[in-house]
Write a structure and sequence with these properties.
This protein is mainly alpha-helical. Among the domains are: 69 residues, no CATH class; 164 residues, no CATH class. Helix content is 44%, strand content 7%. Helix 1 packs antiparallel against helix 2. The longest helix is centred in the first third of the chain and has 25 residues. It is globular, with a radius of gyration of 25 Å. The C terminus is likely disordered. It binds zinc ion. The site of zinc ion has 6 residues, from loops. It comes from Larimichthys crocea. InterPro entries: Helitron_helicase-like (IPR025476).
């Protein structure tokens, strides 16, 4: 807890008395974005910073809830100290979410995600079904500029093409803060410079929602929902051809021509193909591949509608997921990546 490497003289810590008040998040921002990478490169320090910031936010949020005055349960009863000494009453407060509401502003807590889910459901009610569900994974191992930026911060230069997998991992691990910031910038650029740009690569965006998730080894990816203006709704039309025309306008599953665009061909072959060996996730439920790969080639787009049998399968899937929920939480699907 003393972090002697970061604070050899014991000065400039968070709890030091300062002329100007400094919030933990401002303080840690300055530490982690500092040109001196002693802070950002120490994983224990990162967890310490997160712990202190979240504790501070939780305490703040609690005192706001208390100051709001009327401590009343959602069924309208006044919360008294007598009530809090009764085990059954406290359990009831927890089940009604009265006891956990203060955690709502704290990113990542169940209360936070519950509110996010409600907001998202409100979007669906207002805007209808989303048009696209897109997943974008970070490919730090393929981004020379991320590796080079981390090294440059440490005052060194590297030749990306000479690095093997382990060397790249070591470099990325040496400053997770920079790696994460670059990912965030890329997501921003993906949204503003591409998806929301006047070029409208997937149509005119009405609204969108995304969530960042992390794979087991810490690599981030986003799940993105996009509502496109005037998109035809699947299953709503008598004529499928309108939907098919819309899909064909924006989606292709063709291999790019290796002669016309060798670079694109290489990228698609390496990261956009379902692995021939399948992933662990593919083989869940004792099947070769629960996503049904390899699929037969098709020369045109067709729409398939759920049948009662498919519904049964879905139910089974959900049950499977619930049973192994903790595992899924920490390790989202990785089937689309090596
Ligand atoms: Zn598979």
């Amino acid at each position: 807890m003393a972090f002697p490497v970061q604070f050899p003289t014991g000065q400039n810590t968070l709890d030091e008395v300062r002329g100007k008040k400094l919030s933990p998040s401002k303080y840690f921002n300055a530490r982690l974005f500092c040109v001196d990478t002693r802070f950002a490169s120490d994983q224990s320090y990162l967890f310490f910073a997160q712990f202190v910031t979240e504790t501070h936010m939780a305490t703040n949020s609690m005192s706001i809830q208390m100051r709001k005055g009327k401590p009343i349960t959602s069924d309208g009863r006044k919360i008294s100290s007598k009530m809090l000494q009764n085990k059954q009453e406290v359990e009831k407060l927890i089940t009604n979410k009265d006891a956990t509401r203060f955690m709502q502003p704290l990113r990542g807590t169940p209360a936070y995600w519950e509110k996010t889910l409600k907001d998202l459901n409100a979007m669906v009610r207002q805007l209808g079904k989303p048009t696209f569900f897109l997943t974008f994974s970070a490919a730090e191992m393929r981004w020379p500029e991320v590796i080079e930026a981390v090294k440059a911060q440490q005052g060194e230069q590297v030749d990306f093409s000479q690095l093997d997998w382990n060397a790249k991992c070591d470099i990325l691990r040496s400053n997770p803060v920079t790696v994460m910031r670059l990912f965030e910038k890329r997501v921003d650029a993906l949204m503003t410079d591409l998806i929301l740009s006047p070029a409208q690569p997937i149509g005119e965006v009405e609204d969108y929602f995304y969530r960042v998730e992390f794979q087991a080894r810490g690599s981030p990816h986003i799940h993105l929902l996009v509502w496109i203006k005037d998109a035809p709704e699947f299953g709503d039309l008598q004529d499928d051809s309108v939907v098919i025309k819309f899909i064909d306008q924006y989606i292709t599953c063709q291999m790019p021509d290796p002669n016309a665009d060798p670079e694109l061909h290489k990228i698609v072959s390496e990261v956009q193909l379902h692995s021939r060996n399948h992933s662990k996730s593919c083989k869940k439920g004792n099947v070769m591949c629960r996503f049904g790969f390899p699929k037969l080639p098709m020369d045109r787009t067709i729409l398939t509608y759920p049948t009662p049998d498919d519904d049964d399968d879905d139910d089974n899937d959900n049950n499977d997921q619930q049973q192994s929920a903790p595992k899924n939480k920490t390790r989202p699907r990785t089937s689309y990546k090596r």
